[in-house]
């Protein structure tokens, strides 16, 4: 099943493997580099590539050396990347990731913003090393609407840059999940309190992006109940059931396996379009396997996303096809290192 083709929106994917979004922190002045183009082009045999998180505006930058897509120069730099992937036969979505309270004034020159003035209680990356996450400035109701529009503007720029679509990052403790979370969102306006209030930002952001570029080009990534970067969510089954009901019929939802199989299956049944499952959860200790992917396809998932397995195995599709061993990677080279990026070869027979 993993190696069979699949129709996603207007795209025909040659297989059901998705290269999951992974922060690599190798941008220069907020722009991807020639090495970025090589990195994604090397992995173009994936059914779909979803890029590392790309900030939709300056205040959304979560960490150093992360790319954005809110200036003309950034769009031009990304066009080199999308061209390289397309020339090599691939398909690529940009992941739009607003850090919200996960950020630091040293990173982007702005105090981070969030649903409420509540610090994450974790460390964040800065140019001078890990530092405690600062208390964010709570967005006004008007500013929440401006952040929604920032996602739509970034989506338009992504299409201008040649991306086949975009994925909104609603997982792993960033801005969209901060609104969903009872620990990060203590608002008393229409964006907090009840489940209806807490899902509103996600629904509006997805709706604005779908209106901007077409729903068939839009996905969202979610980590139901995932506790990372200070996130706590209450009544997870109801929260995500209501969220999926309220979202427009976009191309896909992309779930991390952060709850048990029963809850994941219930969400699969509740979602009408493509369902992507990442079996590794939140940065698991091992690369996910082909067997895990096949199991979830049998359980109703349509596509399977692989993160760590794609770091050291640009030819992951071929390795799965032929039953070849996978290369593990050194965590010390995941971010910013000159090594561990484009220097992993395809399997040598």
UniProtKB/TrEMBL annotation:
Q: Which Pfam families is this protein grouped with? A: Oxidored_FMN
Q: Where is the NADH:flavin oxidoreductase/NADH oxidase N-terminal domain?
A: 7-325
For molecular function, the Gene Ontology terms on record are: FMN binding; oxidoreductase activity
Q: Which InterPro entries match?
A: Aldolase_TIM, OxRdtase_FMN_N, Oye-like
Q: Which PANTHER family match?
A: NADH OXIDOREDUCTASE-RELATED, NADPH DEHYDROGENASE 2-RELATED
Q: What is this protein called?
A: N-ethylmaleimide reductase
Biological source species: Lentzea xinjiangensis
